[in-house]
Amino acid sequence: MARAGSPPGGSGPASAPIWLLPSVLLAVCTAVAVSLTPSTARAPVAAIGIAATVAVAIAAGETARRGRALDELRRQFAQRESVLQGHLAQQEAETVRMAKETLPKAMAQLQEGIRAEDVLRNVGHVSRVSPEFEAAYQAVLRYVLQAVEAEEDLRDSAQRAFVNIARRVQAIVHQQAQELREMEDKHGNDPEVFGDLLQLDHRTALVGRLADSIAVLGGARPGRQWQQTIPLFNVLRGAMSRIIDYQRVDLHSVAEVGILGRGVEPLIHALSELLDNATRYSPPQTRVHLTATEIQTGVAIEMEDAGIGLTDEARLRAEQALAQDSPTGIDLDDLGESPRLGLAVVGRLARTNDFKVSFRSSAYGGVRVVLIVPPELITATPVPGGAIARAAVLPPPRRRGGPMRHVEGVVEEPVPAVSPRGANGLPQRRRRTRTVIPPLRHRPAAPSTTASDAPASAAAPPQAGMWLAAFQEGISGEPRAGAPAPRPDGLSDQESERN
Question: Residue 26 pLDDT more than 60?
Answer without folding.
Answer: yes
